[in-house]
Design brief:
Two copies of one chain form a homodimer. Chain A is an all-alpha fold. Chain A has twelve helices and no strands. The first copy, chain A, binds a DNA duplex through α3.
DNA sequence: ATCTTTTTAGAGTATATACTCTAAAAAGAT
DNA sequence: ATCTTTTTAGAGTATATACTCTAAAAAGAT
């Protein structure tokens, strides 16, 4: 593997575990056992590394957010979408956690991210529409479809941040178990299910159950205020 | 007003407009026309300023997230909750935007925020339950109530970040108009309405309509990928 | 009027960070 | 075998930032 690719991989790993803000270019170089000078031979600056990582993420998401063209869409497709989405979210979790700062320090990323978001929202709407056509979703007005897509987006992109914020320990690795990530799928399904036709609901509820994870809120301790 | 309170106010203002990360203690002092030394006379460090701001926010939210004890709950109460929530969100918007970093650099804040979140989730659940009892919401299982509360929380706390991320300009002030903030109310209502009894839906839809704002996604431009 | 406490200014400092520059080593081409 | 290009190490730098320290001014108490 080329040094350049290794830098991207190492950076992603460090960003994910420590947060972009806490990982300097010196850290990345040190972690790879190379000199800072060398790192800067491969990348002009830190933003370029981040940008390249984002581009990979974009590619990943764009690759799976498609309505099947050769056959009607099925409930299982919905599950695969959600699975894929939350896996991607996990693999690039630093992006949504440090989004604010990333966007404010790189105009190019900001632009791309905006388009990426709009593209995803359109994709979700197309999926909803396809579901309506296969008699899975009840038909709805365009405005409603928009709201559904947006709410779904908000839930999905905030899931990582929520999980990190709710856990006691600073150390993300133990807190953010695979299981707790998957509970995101459960939540989105909870949002989706009321709009399904009655005959599909049972299957959906069954599938949903596999994603449930109750160990999220760590302590059932009594809260201070009412 | 005491200098200490002025520091808190100025900091909140600067954090909101520029993001906590981009506002140094030197900036705050300069913006107030005072010396850094003076600022550090009033606050031991930057974290203490942030902590005090958070405590104010906590107080604000805790003050309105209550089920009325003397009368049954009404749909209008729901609207007031949402109005209050989004106003609070706006007034302290830097918190949810820079949450990740704030929590990772202050253990005390981290703990308090966790409790705050759990408290809010419980509050939302209590409101849902009260709505069920006043024959507004259809009755649901506890697990479902939990999911609803959590999804609502995710939508609400991500709304600010979404708005900032989707706008072209770096300058938040023009992008984040009062109107676009309010669209968050519209979205949450969209989530809520299907669970209402039929006879309440029309009123809810009417109330919802006032919060609609279509100018969110700035350009209807064609996206690059399908 | 004098003493004490609070508040302020302003210069200064340690540290981290993103990034540069130069020279040497390694790899590749013919 | 020699030349050219790519890759690397390592020392160094400018800058921002959070925070400290000291001395003086202002405010308050009696």
């Amino acid at each position: 593997m080329k040094t350049k690719d290794k830098i991207v991989l190492t950076s992603l790993e460090l960003f994910n575990t420590n947060g972009e803000r806490n990982v300097s270019t010196n850290h990345i170089a040190a972690h790879m056992g190379m000199s800072p000078g060398n790192l800067y031979y491969h990348f002009r600056n830190k933003s370029d590394i981040i940008y390249e990582i984002f581009k990979n993420y974009e590619l990943l998401v764009d690759s799976y957010l498609h309505v099947p063209s050769d056959r009607p869409i099925h409930i299982h497709d919905l599950i695969s979408y959600l699975d894929a989405v939350f896996n991607g979210l996990w693999a690039y979790r630093f992006i949504h956690r440090d989004l604010e700062h990333l966007l404010s320090s790189d105009e190019r990323l900001r632009d791309d991210y905006r388009h990426f978001t709009l593209r995803c929202l359109e994709g979700i709407q197309r999926i909803i529409l396809a579901m309506e056509k296969s008699a899975i979703y009840r038909p709805m007005a365009e405005q409603q479809r928009k709201s559904k897509a947006l709410n779904t987006w908000l839930i999905v992109t905030n899931w990582m941040t929520y999980l990190k914020s709710i856990h006691v320990s600073e150390n993300a690795e133990e807190a953010l178990s695979r299981k707790s990530i998957q509970h995101g799928v459960y939540l989105v399904l909870d949002y989706v299910i009321p709009y399904l036709y009655e005959d599909k609901r049972e299957l959906a509820l069954e599938l949903q159950e596999k994603y449930r994870f109750d160990g999220i809120a760590p302590k059932p301790e009594l809260s201070k205020a009412s």
